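Hi team,

Filling in the usual template for the complex we talked about on Friday. All components are listed, including any nucleic acid strands or ligand strings, so the model treats them as one assembly.

SUBMITTER: L.P.
PURPOSE: interface mapping
COMPONENTS: four
RESIDUES: 590
SEQUENCES:
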Amino acid sequence: MLSPVDPHLLRTYVTVARLASFSEAARELGYTQSAVSQHIAALEQDLGAPLLTRRPVTPTSAGERLLEHAGPLLLRLDAARADVVRMAAAPERGLTLAASPTALGPRVLAALPCAGVTLRVLARDEIPAAVATGAADLGLVDGIAAPNDPLRLPDVAPLTTHGVAEEPVCVLLPDTHPLAGRSALRLGDLAAARWLDAPDAGVPLARLRVANGGGAFRPALRYDGTDVRVLTALAAAGHGLTLLPRSAATGVPGAVAVPLTEPRVVHRTELVHGGAPRGAAARLVGRLVERERDR
Amino acid sequence: MLSPVDPHLLRTYVTVARLASFSEAARELGYTQSAVSQHIAALEQDLGAPLLTRRPVTPTSAGERLLEHAGPLLLRLDAARADVVRMAAAPERGLTLAASPTALGPRVLAALPCAGVTLRVLARDEIPAAVATGAADLGLVDGIAAPNDPLRLPDVAPLTTHGVAEEPVCVLLPDTHPLAGRSALRLGDLAAARWLDAPDAGVPLARLRVANGGGAFRPALRYDGTDVRVLTALAAAGHGLTLLPRSAATGVPGAVAVPLTEPRVVHRTELVHGGAPRGAAARLVGRLVERERDR
DNA sequence: GCATCCCATCAGTTCTGCTTATCGAGAGTG
DNA sequence: CACTCTCGATAAGCAGAACTGATGGGATGC
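RESULT (copied from the run log):
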């Protein structure tokens, strides 16, 4: 049986690759430069391939490949520890909730307890990681899916998800737009449009590209922030169209929200948590999931 | 910064949990019983929680949780090594192809080279693991999805997938069945039917349960093998209905295949491979993906 | 050509991880 | 009830791993 790759070596490897320097990595990790050098040598010998070019320090192609593995791997390793530790000691500190910006729909907001919650807005794909490592007790992720379909989340760890809410998806158009009067839109109607590319604030477009039959969207302006207000303002100012859940798209000055009817997709919000939510976290889970069942 | 869980300890832990014995695990791992005892003690101290009850040796609740993490974790660790090693040394041995039973549709069979291929039929969720760890060079997985949607695969490692074929999904009915004369069926027509539960041979039903609005299927007989012939024979004999891709469902004596039109799903086959397919593997990838593009 | 920077290598020390040996608790037996 | 057998915990010792500090050598800059 072949022994697993030593995660200790892996950690120094990713640090070296990130900083592009053995000595810097040594400083950051609290080792001597010598130790780091030996770590990399050991890893290269173990895998039987050079991982870094020296001078300048850059990953080789094999090293690039290893980097792709290393991130999720170290994440899972930490997640495993965090998850088990969480079961043992539940200090009942304040509840931390990690959420993507558009995941905070009306149903969620109504269910939040009045006090004792720390809300942390993160990019969509950081949320499972935050929950897995214990940085947050609960996560709220949103995205586009077929009705009643679960979202596709990166599975960094065994997490539990519950559907919490589904809303229609709307296109946000400046009210001067020729299609602004429509009561419904198909994606095909907008084939020639320019889109705002806002993976962290808006609804990710990539998911639709497939349903769209492979036709790529023409991105106009890319927005890397997480502020929905900025995004709606950009859309209202005519910088491009964007997709939002109805509740986030209505009431924007200078813009109208038109429901998207084809393809038949919904904006879905899911609650994600680790093994054993306790105390306030458990209560919030109960409240959100129960509301869903009433629906 | 917290140091990652030692995978060495993790490996002995899962072995102990599986065998429910320290001494047995020691024998299997080539350690002394003392070493295993120390490993478990170290892990429990590291995580700050008891993981096993002794006498009898059983995982605690925290231990159960850890087991859920451990499997994917060790798999990924091996996958990382295998992937990098594969980049370095490409010995150009015979091509090994791992496939789920119903993934071998006509398009795939036509593209296979005449010689030098080892075909290995595995359960659906073992295939990504086999490809990731290098047990197979390529994998073929099938499943049910919305048209043009990718399948949901367990992401054990960064793998690349290509859609290879899509076929209609058919219900296989014994020709004495009252609905056997229909030219098309909706899932709602079959709400009262009994189903064959064959997760490894047929098409998994779980995926449809969601699209079905949460209504569970009534399973009649469970078949754990991977032989499609057995499955079709069972269906023809009236032991229950089953879903199959059209090419696998036609021509079964005593049964008819009726296309499923609602929900709108297809049987999809995907090719999955690791980082850098070479030689014969690369040629096969090329041939399969190219055929897809022609479609 | 000299200084500097950066990684590789070597020797020495510390500390971890494994083995052997022994103990103690619990289950089965006459 | 005593005896034994099994199985896991613990102690001591030893070999090897891991890290440090020092040194070497190939780049680059002045």
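MY TAKE: The first strand of chain A starts at residue 52 and ends at 53. Chain A touches chain B through 51 residues (CB under 8 Å).

Thanks, L.
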